[in-house]
Design a protein that fits this description.
Elements lengths: L17 E7 L20 H16 L6 E4 L3 H12 L6 E4 L9 H7 L8 E6 L3 H10 L12 E6 L9 E6 L1 H9 L2
Length: about 180
Amino acid sequence: MPQRRPSPVDPDAGPGGVRLYLVRHAIAAERGDEYPDDAKRPLTGKGIARFREVVEALVAGGVEIDEILTSPAVRTRQTAELLAEGFAERPRLTNMHALAVHGQAQEVIDGLARHATRRSLALVGHEPLLGEVAARLIGSRRALTFKKGAVCAIDVPGLPVLAPGTLAWFLPPRLIRALRASR
């Protein structure tokens, strides 16, 4: 019987721990006259298609998500919905205003305490906020840089976050899609 190859996206937050998936929204319409309100910019067709491939790879890699917290902006909400649709047991979607474009990293981290019963959460948001949240979660002084559609997994000892976590993996969308294609 062929043995399943280990996947870099297999979940394992450890006993009592929580796995946090930080997800930058997929490719969205450009700012401009058509979308004077930045919060109303939708995903493009290309963004939707590419992010569906990312979701398929995450699901195939064994990712499990209990709840998805999302910025209320249209593009992040659409990305969160695409993420949720990929799972047989659809995770709950919750708006988290701290994840909005001008949110503060510490406010996001403090808000996670309200979800202390969860074992896995996805946070769908924007740059540079996600990079700052990731840095604080792992105890780094430098923010991580998320491309559109990128995902990272950070294991924290529990919620509320009282100690630095561990960066389990950080994958740009192109690599996630390549992993999916190689299965």
